[in-house]
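Handout, page 2. Input:
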Amino acid sequence: MQKLVVVGLSHRTASLETRERFAFEGTALREALEWLRERGADECVILSTCNRTEIYACTPHDDLLVNFLHEWEGLPPNALQPYLYIKRSEEAVEHLFRVAAGLDSQVLGESEILAQVKQAWEKAREAGSVGVLLNSLFQRAVVVGKRVRAETALGRQVVSLGSLAVRAALQHKPDIHNATIIVIGTGTMGRRVAKELADFQPKAVYILSHTFSYATALASDTGAIPLALGALQQVLPEADIIFTATTAPHPILDTTCLAPLEHSRADRPLIILDLGVPRNTDPAVRLLPFVRLYDIEDLKALSDAHYRAREREVPAALRIIEEEMEDYLSWWHTRGAAPLIAALQERAEQIRRQQIEWAMPKLGSLSEHQKRIIDQMTARIVKQILHHPVSELRNILDEDDALLIFARLFGLEQKEPVLAAVTSSEEEQ
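Output:
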């Protein structure tokens, strides 16, 4: 556990302009995980969302993660220092649990982050960069997120950045049932927006995606019209509202594609809600008089009002996190000592049996009752002698060095660090 560290930046520490430089998806994510493993991270998971990029790793060297972020963007040393946070060991565990519970989100209690945590974990497993520690940690984080949503009011009214974006659109277009809407992107955020919109039954909703089959599947679920992304220019003149939510590295909407619409729109504004990181819309489109552009930072006012209404649920969520922290850390430290405890008990039992076999012939004729008394007495002596060292062993926090000393003290085999001494079945769980 002493090797666990998280280095990250989020909406609390860095602007959107800074965060969007560190969005890891697809090939970039796989390359980043490979880079970290090649340079000494035993395990690593990258959680990259619209509001944060965090690297969870097992490494004694914090600077490995910090250097990676600088090298990835070709930045000079310490350029990111004002924006980064570093958390280690138990503090890193607590941070991940808070993130999974939605307590560290821009939208307090938002529902999407739990799926994003699970997806980051799954992607790292596919890349072969997850081992025992991060596998068990992220598994427990998902449990925490589910408990908070099931046992507190944070889960009773599902709120997300996507749903807030729809509310923002409603403020500008109350008669949304008369609107023609374009949704670009079929990921977590795009799906949320499309499903929220379906409740209002707009005049028309177009779902656009790089992968037409994804657009077709989402459109089928929401009663929308699927289109390939290449058809965007054809439907732009009809649009009243556009939601963008893709992971494209470059803007999809810019002045080149939007400026020609100006002469045909008269008093009909075009509302664009950009939920992408990096941003899917060139900020320069704000200069077009008929465009009303809102990005993730612009939605902050709505999320602040939402936070005040839901913050009374935070203490209950924190109690759940505290319970799960205590249980997880207890399990982790105990399982680290378990192989040595079993070896010590086996060695003690072996010695006890040998001594009984040596003593019995010298005691003459004994009844079966007397033999049972001797057997029970020696077993109780061994148990009481081992009670204190076994209890202390379970309390050892800095596993590897302390457990190695313990093993040598009692003449037990300890050929590898405890972190590696697990069964393959444990990893699969």
